[in-house]
Amino acid sequence: MLLSFLKTLTSRMFGRHRSDASAQFELGVASHKSGQFAAAERHYRAVLQERPRDAEATFLLGVACHQQDRMDEALRYCARAVKLAPGNATWLASVQNL
Asked: What does the buried/exposed string (b/e) look like for 55-78 if buried means 16 or more CB atoms within 10 Å of the residue's CB?
């Protein structure tokens, strides 16, 4: 609680607002759903800065790259997501179809 307050206070003092990874993920999904793939990508990357082993954010980053015709990156991120969460059959099938 105190740490959260201090982060908020510090970010406001320096004119920056830094959301936590969960908020960034939600913003990424909302951007993605509205077709704003570059914005979604930025949010997913922000999530991965805080949680580098987040399989879902990694996979969705790959999808966002795919939707921007960056196939090499898409494959790299989607394959990494499958390695992070090997039991996800949907993601595995997606990687196989890239």
From this structure: bbbbbbbbbbbbeeebeeebeebb
Structure tokens belonging to residue 93: 């099938």
pTM of the model: 0.77
pLDDT by position in tens, the chain (length 98): 554 554 554 455 444 445 599 999 999 999 999 999 999 999 999 999 999 999 999 999 999 999 999 999 999 999 999 999 988 888 777 777 77
> Under a CB-based contact definition with an 8 Å cutoff, are residues 58 and 90 in contact?
no
Q: How many residues does the chain have?
A: 98
Give long-range contacts, CB 8 A cutoff, 24+ apart: 71-78.
71/98, 74/98
